[in-house]
Specification:
Blueprint: H1 5-9, H2 13-19, H3 25-37, H4 44-63, H5 83-106, E1 114-118, E2 124-129, H6 133-156, H7 178-203, H8 209-244, H9 248-258, H10 263-276, H11 279-292, H12 297-310, H13 313-332
Antiparallel strand pairs: 1-2
Helix pairs in contact: 4-5, 5-6, 6-7, 7-8, 9-10, 10-11, 10-12, 11-12, 12-13
């Protein structure tokens, strides 16, 4: 910890640069609060409440990647006792509690597990494991699983805690935390397979070695078959998802289909159409964006540009004036 202190102090450079340090203590605290809050209308408490459900969605996507969306129109919850939020919170607490339990279980390892055997001249002959090999391996597995779970939650803290961001959910936020899920789930899966294989071998000791070998071969074959099947299904899903990402139009159309009531999505697909020269389609979606959010400055300005391209100067100027008025109003705030 002492070695890390100098590096941790450098973390203050960016926030102090953003908020300024030439103000009284009270004003400095207020600036810190406003800076970390961002532009979201949600309070810190409301943002945290929604993140319980968001983290559950991240986990669901890792194990069941269906209905992926670049720009979610995610429902906003105001109470932790809302059933989706409350159930998600219980699920997350159970996972975190499991990690704590496994971590403390892993501390009950066999200390000094290895002892050495020397000859009369004190020459090392071999090292052997003292105690139960299976128990020792289980303790190592427990620690790796706990590490993976802790990694997942700790890496989500900057974006899924009490610091509100403009968007409650973005799939790319789970990329780094997903490493922990891979470690935890992979370790647990192989640990279970190994333990079942070892237990089966013990039960088969009083039988012929041929039967034991057949059982082991069958277990390995079933594991490989399941792995190949899972990889095949996920590969097909990844290929199909990549076809949506092939260009801006297909990606934006996918977002419109999944988030039809979000103004930003309609503005983005309108811009994609405008870049393709499909002005009529662009106008339709810009208008839909403005209907959903009348104070959406970008949509008003984009509508002005597409009207100007079509030679409809009067209609375009109307939306340009609205965009300028909204910008002045925001700057006044």
């Amino acid at each position: 910890i002492l070695y890390l202190i100098p590096f941790m102090l450098t973390m203050l450079i960016i926030p102090l640069t953003l908020i300024g340090i030439d103000k009284p203590a009270g004003g400095l605290v207020d600036d810190v609060g406003e800076t970390i809050k961002g532009n979201t209308p949600l309070s810190r408490q409301a943002y945290l409440i929604n993140e319980f459900r968001v983290i559950f969605t991240y986990l669901r996507l890792l194990f069941f990647p269906v209905n992926q969306n670049l720009d979610y129109d995610y429902p906003v919850y105001r109470s932790v006792f809302n059933p989706p939020v409350f159930l998600s919170l219980l699920f997350l607490l159970s996972i975190f509690g499991l990690a704590v339990y496994l971590f403390y279980r892993s501390r009950y390892t066999i200390h000094d597990t290895r002892f050495t055997i020397h000859d009369k001249n004190n020459t090392l002959l071999r090292r052997e494991l003292k105690g139960d090999n299976v128990h020792h391996a289980s303790c190592i597995m427990y620690r790796f699983v706990a590490f993976g779970i802790f990694w997942f939650f700790i890496n989500l803290l900057p974006e899924s805690s009490l610091i509100p961001l403009n968007n409650v959910i973005f799939e790319h936020r789970v990329y780094l935390p997903s490493v922990g899920v891979v470690i935890a789930f992979g370790t647990a899966l192989f640990g279970v397979i190994q333990r079942r294989g070892g237990s089966a071998t013990v039960r088969q000791n009083d039988r012929t070695s041929g039967q034991s070998s057949s059982f082991s071969f069958l277990s390995i074959a079933l594991s490989l078959y399941s792995s190949v099947a899972l990889i095949g299904v996920l590969s097909i899903a990844a290929y199909q998802r990549n076809t949506i990402w092939k260009d801006e139009v297909s990606l934006c159309e996918d977002m419109v289909m999944k988030s039809p009531k979000k103004a930003r999505v309609h503005n983005n697909v309108g811009l994609a159409y405008q870049l393709k020269g499909w002005d009529d389609r662009a106008i339709e979606h810009y208008q839909m964006a403005i209907n959903l959010d009348p104070e959406y400055i970008t949509a008003h300005y984009n509508l002005f540009t597409v009207y100007a391209n079509k030679g409809w100067a009067n209609k375009g100027k109307e939306h340009l004036d609205i965009a300028r008025r909204l910008m002045r109003h925001q700057r006044g705030k």
